[in-house]
Amino acid sequence: MPKPTPSPSLILATLALAVYFVGAVEFMLAPMLTPLASAFAAKPADIAWLVSAYAVSYAVLAPLIGLLGDRIGRRRLLLPALALFAADALAVAFAPSLSFAIVARVLGGAAGAALTPTAFALIAETVPEERQAGAMGLVLLGLTLGIATGPTFAGLLTDAYDWQAPFIAVACGCIAVLILAARILPPSIARRSRPLKASAARLLDGAILRPNLSKGFWLGATIAGFLISGEVLRSRYGLSTGVIGLSVAAFGLGLAAGNLAVGRLTAWAGRPETVLVFAIGLIFFTQSAFLATESSCVSAIILLALWGFASGLAAPANTAVQTSRAGSDAGFVLASSESINNCALLVLAPVVASWIGRADTVDAAILLGACTLAALGVNLLDQRSLPKILPGETG
Predict the structure, then answer these.
(1) Domain tally for the chain?
(2) What residue ranges are annotated as transmembrane (predicted)?
């Protein structure tokens, strides 16, 4: 008797759980820079290389893994990626030195390169185009919850136990989701292979290149800024690691609100490109105000929440634009976009972390603000080109 097909809602929920750990692992370091530095006898700026190692691996491997997913099917990538994420978390938790932990983060980068773009490519295959922004917002809600709860749980578990506890918890969670995904995700669909040159050439199409570059600029700046947000709160207000974890959760709550609002806002605006321009402008304002102005602690947390809300709008809107234009190359295009994001993060994270060590948040605000404005400029150019793009075409 054939196995019943899981409902689309159940598939979306499973994908949301899978990408939850991408957000949790990538962002839970925000309140942990100082405890990790103490554990490895290093400086907080040195701990930023845990993020950079992840970003390098992600950036190098994402296009190849995305291309592989387009050919062998999404399930065959998602399940091993969850196992690899668990292995990465355990390797970092029991690393004998910072150098070993940095090398181990390569595993996490490979897993992230498979998980996130493949999940969104699966949505593009199973959800009608007019509903994709909303569906991607729901799956991004899983990523958002990881961003919101990852720093919180990391801070609380570090205070209650030690810095290893958050990584062990991530490993156990990944294994649990792996068991669920093995039962829920649809079988992989074999596809006709296209030459690598043909798929790669699409990345140079204007309609593909512009949203890819835009996402690299604004998302790289956003992640780099958020990763130092905990240290900004620590240096300005003298908060403990646990309280910092709770405070930066405001960013994640804002992200969740943005993810849930993007479907309706896109329907009202008429197209995700319009939502994206608005969201990037709001990111620039809130991120710059948080980093460059020393307001009250409450005001700083409100700015974090608004910054998160804008990012929660921008991410699914940007992804919906990319998938609708990429067609059958969605996995490869999204993975290549993730490479650009992580290349930006690789450059920005160590720089802004070193500045925070000298309490130089204004310079960080200027650098990250310039990246965000570059993204806004690319999107405004893209808006001007929209009347020239016919349905189903790129250019």
Answers:
(1) 1
(2) 49-68, 77-96, 102-123, 135-157, 163-185, 216-233, 239-262, 274-292, 298-320, 332-356, 362-381
The pTM (predicted TM-score) of the whole model is 0.67
pLDDT of residue 271: 84
In a domain, 199, yes or no: no
Q: Give 186-208 pLDDT, tens digit per residue.
A: 776 655 555 556 666 777 777 88
Tokens matching residue 264 = 């309706």
Supply the mean pLDDT for the chain.
Answer: 80
86 belongs to a structural domain: yes
* 307 lies in some domain: yes
Higher pLDDT, 380 or 259: 380
